Amino acid sequence: ILVEKGGYKHHMLREINEVPEALLRTLSSVQKRYLNLAGRLVTGADNIYIIANGTSLHAGMIASYYFSELAGISPIVTSAAEFPLYYLENVGPGTLVIAISQSGETGDVLSSLYEAKLRGATILGITNYVGSRLARLSNLYLPIAAGPEIAVPATKTFTSTLQVLYLVALSSSRQKGKIEESEQKARLEAIKKLAQSLDERLAFIDSEATKAAEKISLCRSGYVVSRGLTYPLALEGALKLKEASYFHAEGVEAGEFKHGPFVLVEQGFATIFIMPVEKVSAEATFPSIEMARQTGATVVVIGSENNQKLLELSQDGVTTIRAVETERHLAPISLAVPLQLLAYRLGEKLNRPIDTPRHLVKAVTQ
Ligand code: AGP
Q1: Strands 269-274 and 298-304
Q2: Which of 94, 110, 159, 238 could bridge across to 46 with cysteines, CB 3.0–4.6 Å?
Q3: Is 271 helix (H, G, I), strand (E, B) or coil?
Q4: Cβ neighbours for 66, distance < 8 A, ≥ 6 positions apart
Q5: Residues with Cβ within 6 A of ligand 1?
Q6: Do the beta carbons of residue 295 and residue 266 sit within 8 Å?
Q7: pTM for this predicted structure
Q8: What is the ipTM score, two decimals?
Q9: Is the separation of the CB atoms in 315 and 343 below 8 Å?
Q10: How far is the CA of 65 from the centre of ligand 1 (A)?
Q11: Is residue 33 exposed (0-12), middle (13-18) or buried (19+ Cβ within 10 Å)?
């Protein structure tokens, strides 16, 4: 497929700018009857595994919070590289495997599926390519419909994958009678609103991310720290920084920060906090932010635009990036964008081959 950069310097930047339209396309592409069917597969399964790699795995980790909170179901989330080696014992005819792969061609995902199918499991595939092997191996697949993604660092496919998983969790929740149809509809409206606000605010978020990237470019290494629903996003942010800018970063669960990771924090070290979406979790993270500031480390805090603490920190001279305010379960989608832009702008500043990082390919088929 020939995809032009459309006036952008890199595919990655174009693709981040396409996040809002991709969200809307995903919403109109995932058909209601297939979502109902997916919800039935989830609620009817004896046990559920979510398998994927890299960015798709991080989406799967966030989805485990969706399923647990909205449908009272706790799937096991694992790397597709681990699944066929360590998880087959309990895979059988009552098992549902939710396989996520934007390319639909990732080798570890496909070999996991062969093993799972041999044992009689049902496969729900989630992919951006309807003609992919993943789609063909699935009993039911749902399209991510983000449009072709060229840059190796995945961006718009991540946010749209999260959206598909959220829709499946909502459908499961509805089928378990945990939410009313009106609530399901309201939550779909919130996605549209988020896409619209993101579209309006992307340039502003980019300008804040660019300033933050300037500061981080002076550091040798860093952490991305968060908890709960946005903890997997910390892992994703660290992965994006590595791929797009060759900047060494590690995702840290905020509660673990003081149990070891803090030892490295000092001047010349970047500590990027993603403000947790729950008030209690956010408050529990404030002391870590202060601890990092006291060391003279470079501190960046990413949070929702109306977050009071974020405003206070910014007035106090801390570098902040303000993401679009949205409902709690959609926050990982909203907060992914500043992290993606941060990684992109840092890669640009450090003159990295952003779309084609060394040693990596778009689909790891072996
Ligand atoms: C994402 O930025 C990476 N390029 C990589 O981790 C990727 O997500 C992983 O290889 C899985 O790819 P898939 O979604 O096509 O299966």
Answers
A1: parallel
A2: 94
A3: strand
A4: 165, 166, 169, 329
A5: 53-56, 101-103, 106, 109, 152-154, 243, 363-364
A6: yes
A7: 0.97
A8: 0.98
A9: no
A10: 21
A11: exposed
